[in-house]
UniProtKB/TrEMBL annotation, chain A:
InterPro entries: NIR_SIR_4Fe-4S, NiRdtase/SiRdtase_haem-b_fer, Nit/Sulf_reduc_fer-like_dom_sf, NO2/SO3_Rdtase_4Fe4S_dom, NO2/SO3_Rdtase_4Fe4S_sf. This is Sulfite reductase. Keywords: 4Fe-4S, Heme, Iron, Iron-sulfur, Metal-binding, Oxidoreductase. The lineage of its organism: Bacteria, Pseudomonadati, Pseudomonadota, Alphaproteobacteria, Hyphomicrobiales. Signal peptide: none annotated. It holds the Pfam family NIR_SIR. Coiled coil: none annotated.
From TrEMBL, chain B:
It comes from Pararhizobium antarcticum. It comes from the Bacteria. This is Nitrite reductase.
Length: 556, 104
């Protein structure tokens, strides 16, 4: 993985000391809140319902054991013994004191981490496929390009005060696991007929109150033009993006109002001026960054095949976990392990300090010191020998981290919701816990198959409800919580925005409604191989409306 | 008139606080001073502005409450959660607003 050079160390250190001074001046009263608020936000410090919240960047979701141990240490020393992994592959702490935040950032800097640009109207943490560099279906590792974008965008003077926040995602496989089509810029790595690496470029996707699927404005952008073309997009957005209305300020609105063709033309005009400038990426630089992400030296471990078959036969729970949470690696003797942060009835994305320490230990012992955070709020060990899976599983079981539900109905994304968030209108976490408990039986989950439930506690859609196969949006109506259900959303290479199925449900009726939807699907699917999403796309909303609302469905 | 209390978050640690009758910011809504008429509400608002300007608290708001059997209860769920903490057990030994000192 990428390691800081002297410049990076000095830059992050200076930034921490600058923030320490700002915090001291705020606490002494020298700085007023209006002046301080944008400064704390630039360093990832929010004010939520009960306390401050610190969001720490995990670039493209990649970290090592030492960094994970530091995250555990911070949870233990400065917070309440846990952290919350987010849909932006970051971690949030819910209870830090403002007065402690400079010390926290100092400790983070010691392991090459920071909280810069985890908030504010700037380019946020660049996300990537959580299986990057390991997946059997990968064309190229997206992380070197994500890292190049991270370096380019960090405190970029031209793009630090954009009309609104800006999110970039990169994926390197045909199957999009990074939800690039609901990002401001989505980059899809591909090879052309000559075998050269480049990107399909998508612009103007997003969720929030106005969900939009990104438009492809370039089918093949050579890798050397990554920064010049991205800069061109940013310039068009910075110039024409609306600053008069924050709800219409994202590039998705500009792309929608301008039209993809015209937007692409404007980008091309800027690009023509930038193409052969210092922004052109020299091959040597790409190679230098790519070298940081080289696969570890992975010895042949063919004994794993026979061992795995034997262990699976002997332990039904282990077999279920392997089938559900281990995916094929590019090396046939290895697998990619999803560590579920979705225990049945638990809080999606939360991990205790002890769990984080355990994951760090396992990563060092069995996974070449590599850990990922997925945008689905799970942790990943990208390189585990099949021969080590049993030992990894035993370790995870001991700490409640071996729930075999990756991609199933209990693998729910949920934002912090009204239990923490100052913006939320309704709770997300208790609802996810109830749904998870209702569907927790392994056999029932297996029968249902792949089904992604995503829950947001407000229209800002941090819980990605628009792209949930079943999406839940919490709203406040007459002082009480109410949940809108959407069906048919998806955040992969066939991205779709879920359709509102009808009138909302009170909190105590939501899980029953989900069960009705699931039972309807089970009753109408062609066979067990037809997933919920496939079935929904085949039959449309009407059978589900009928099941939920009866004859009144026409008016729903 | 709906009864009201003054709430904010403490500047140094962000913890939710309410203004009591002695002018102190306290961590329990049940200890808050309740304004039951317009003059008292004006006094709360004035105190809130001063406290914000004095950099003791941030996000200062007057909120609606009701008193049921001697227990103060905010009318909005958002404020009830602010007063009582997250509605689920979010970490071993922690419920509601109880911090490390009070943790089991």
């Amino acid at each position: 993985m990428y390691r800081y050079d002297e410049f990076d160390h000095a830059f992050v250190h200076d930034r921490v000391e600058q923030f320490r001074d700002q915090v001291e001046r705020r606490l002494s009263g020298e700085l007023a809140e209006d002046a301080f608020k944008p400064l704390r936000l630039m360093n990832g410090v929010y004010l939520q319902l009960h306390a401050y919240m610190l969001r720490v960047a995990i670039p493209y979701g990649t970290l090592n054991a030492r960094q994970m141990r530091m995250l555990a240490h911070i949870a233990r020393k400065y917070d309440r013994g846990y952290g919350h992994f987010t849909t932006r592959q970051n971690i949030q702490y819910n209870w830090p004191k403002l007065s402690d935040t400079p010390d926290i950032l100092t400790e983070l800097a010691s392991v090459e981490m920071h909280a810069i640009q985890t908030s504010g109207n700037c380019i946020r943490n660049v996300t990537a496929d959580h299986f990057a560099g390991a997946a059997a279906d990968e064309i190229a590792d997206p992380r070197p390009y994500a890292e190049i974008l991270r370096q380019w965008s960090s405190v970029h003077p031209e793009f630090s005060f954009l009309p609104r926040k800006f999110k970039i995602a990169v994926t390197g496989a045909a199957h999009d696991r990074a939800a690039i089509q609901v990002h401001d810029i989505g980059l899809h790595l591909k090879k052309n007929d000559q075998g050269e690496i480049g990107f399909a470029v998508y612009v103007g996707g997003g969720q929030g109150r106005t969900p939009m699927i990104a438009k492809k404005i370039r089918d093949f952008l050579p890798e050397e033009d990554l920064l010049s073309y991205t800069t061109a997009i940013m310039r068009v957005y910075n110039l024409h993006g609306r600053r008069d209305n924050k709800y219409k300020a994202r590039i998705k609105i500009l792309a929608h109002e301008t039209g993809a063709e015209e937007l692409a033309r404007q980008v091309d005009v800027e690009f023509a001026d930038l193409k052969n400038t210092e922004l052109k990426l020299p091959d040597a630089d790409i190679q230098a960054i790519t070298a940081y992400f080289a696969l570890p030296a992975m010895p042949e471990r063919p004994e794993g095949w026979a061992n795995l078959a034997r262990w699976k036969k002997a332990d039904e729970n282990f077999a279920r976990w392997v089938d559900q949470n281990v995916k094929p690696h590019s090396h046939p003797d290895y697998g990619m392990v999803t560590i579920s942060l979705k225990p049945i009835g638990g809080i999606p994305g939360d991990a205790s300090d002890a769990q984080m320490d355990l994951v760090a230990d396992i990563a060092e012992d069995y996974a070449f010191d590599e850990i990922r955070v997925s945008h689905e709020q799970n942790l990943i060990l990208p390189h585990v020998a099949l021969a080590d899976l049993e030992a990894v599983y035993r370790g995870l079981v001991s700490s409640g981290l071996a729930t075999a539900n990756a991609g199933l109905i209990t693998d729910i994304i949920a934002c912090p919701g009204l239990d923490y968030c100052a913006l939320a209108n309704a709770r997300s976490i208790p609802l996810s816990q109830e749904i998870s408990t209702r569907f927790g039986d392994p056999a029932r989950q297996a029968e249902i198959g792949e089904l992604k439930i995503k829950i947001s506690g407000c229209i800002n859609a941090c819980g990605h409800h628009h792209v949930g196969h079943i999406g839940l949006l919490g709203v406040e109506k007459k002082g009480a919580e109410l949940y809108q259900i959407t069906l048919g959303g998806s955040g992969d290479e066939n991205t779709s925005i879920g359709e509102i199925i009808g009138r909302g449900f009170e909190p105590e009726k939501v899980t029953d409604a989900i069960e009705t939807i699931v039972d309807t699907y089970l009753g109408l699917r062609n066979d067990a191989s037809e997933t919920f999403l496939e079935a929904y796309r085949r039959v449309g909303p009407q059978p589900f409306k009928l099941a939920l609302y009866g004859s009144s469905s026409a008016a729903a | 008139m709906v009864d009201k209390v003054l709430t904010a978050n403490r500047l140094s640690d962000g913890i939710s606080v309410w203004l009591d009758a002695a002018g102190n910011w306290v961590e329990s809504l049940q200890d808050a001073f309740v304004a039951r008429h317009a003059e008292a509400v004006s006094a709360l608002e004035s105190t809130g502005k001063t406290a914000f300007a004095d950099n003791k608290v941030v996000d200062v708001n007057v909120i609606d409450i009701e008193e049921v059997n001697g227990v103060l209860r905010p009318l909005r769920l958002r404020e009830r959660i602010r007063a009582e903490g997250p509605t689920m057990e979010y970490a071993p030994g922690y419920k509601g607003l109880a911090g490390p000192v009070h943790a089991a």
